[in-house]
Known about the structure:
single chain; 96 residues; mainly alpha; 4 helices; 77% helix; 0% strand; rod-shaped
Amino acid sequence: MIELIKTICRKIKSYWEIADNVARHRAVDSIEDEIEEMEYIFALLVQGSFVGMPSPPVHISLSLLPHMEKDLSLMMERVTTSNQPISKLFSTFDIG
C-alpha cells in the first residue's frame, strides 16, 4: 500500500514538473516576443522619419544610432520581408 502511494506521488510530481516546464517555456517565449516588439517600436519612435512619423531631434537620434544596430537591422529585415502594398498598387493600376 505504501509503495502504491509513493508511486502515485512520483507520477503526480513528474506530471507537475512537466507542466511547470511547459508553462515556464511559454512564458519565456512570450516575453522574448514582447521584448522584440518593444525594440521594434523603440526603433520606430527614434527613427520614425523612415516611415513619415515625426521623430525626435536629430542630435538625439544620431547619439542613439550606435546603440541601435540590432534594431535597425530588424527594421530593415521587416521592410524587405513586408508585403510591399505600394508596389502591388502600382502594378494594379499599371503606373510607370
